[in-house]
Design a protein that fits this description.
Elements: H1 3-6, H2 12-23, H3 51-58, H4 61-68, E1 79-86, E2 91-93, E3 99-101, E4 109-115, H5 120-136, E5 141-147, H6 154-163, E6 171-172, H7 177-184, E7 193-197, E8 202-208, H8 216-227
Parallel strand pairs: 4-5, 5-6
Antiparallel strand pairs: 1-8, 2-3, 4-7, 7-8
């Protein structure tokens, strides 16, 4: 069966919408707001930045372009981050409920996806992200699906349970601090937003809008990142 035929029915329309938006100079995304789907004026929050980490990431422009050149087909909207940026100091709650940061996850390639329950494209692509993690997740690679609903865990956990998500660990950042920091860095326009992060915690490619992650195109992109 071809990758196109295996595309999730609920995802196919939003992927096409995203592709059309990109062609027109825009991206089909939901604007992040107060957790209900409505926009609000939430100030961007700065993070502690390690100058050495920033410089190390910025020196990976060639690597970013090489990896991004493997982004074709279903994941063609994944673009090289210019310049690559360090995520090391940005924090969130991990699967154990304790606060962590991307610096503690160095050593593996990450596909970081920010999502919310009120974001229809986010909900549609979640099974595909789960499938990618189930097939390719290991000590060297992980899909980090980061929920950014405000409030408590009730809605996101209920959605994951009802959708049958079983491979993705539960990552959470409920203050919109992470999203606003990415927005300030011009990495995020709305939701969903997906970041490809290398083993040193550097964003080398980024995408706004949904994609078909349960595809050969997505696996080719993962392979390219792992090879660097």
């Amino acid at each position: 069966m071809s990758d196109q035929k295996k595309s999730l029915p609920g995802l196919r329309p939003v992927v096409y919408a995203a592709a059309a938006g990109i062609a027109a100079g825009a991206v089909a995304v939901y604007v992040a707001g107060d957790g209900s789907g409505n926009t609000s004026n939430i100030p961007a929050v700065s993070s502690t930045v390690d100058p050495a980490a920033v410089a190390a990431c910025e020196g990976k422009a060639d690597k970013a372009r090489t990896v991004a050149s493997a982004a074709t087909g279903h994941v063609a909207a994944m673009l090289a981050t210019d310049p690559p940026q360090s995520l090391a100091a940005l924090s969130f709650n991990g699967p154990d409920g304790k606060q962590g940061d991307f610096g503690s996850m160095k050593g593996k390639v990450l596909l970081v996806n920010l999502w919310a329950t009120w974001c229809a494209p986010c909900r549609a692509e979640m099974p595909a992200l789960d499938a990618l993690q189930g097939k390719r997740g290991n000590a060297d690679f992980e899909v980090v699906a980061m929920n950014v609903d405000t409030g408590d865990d009730t809605k996101p956990k209920k959605f994951l349970e009802e959708t049958g998500i079983k491979n993705l660990a539960y990552y959470r950042e409920s203050t919109l601090t992470l999203f606003n920091e990415l927005k300030k860095r011009n990495l995020a326009l709305g939701l969903p937003v997906t970041l490809l992060v290398d083993r040193e915690g550097c964003v080398i490619a980024n995408m706004n809008g949904p994609a078909e992650w349960a595809s050969a195109d997505a696996e080719k992109l993962v392979d390219a990142a792992l090879a660097q």
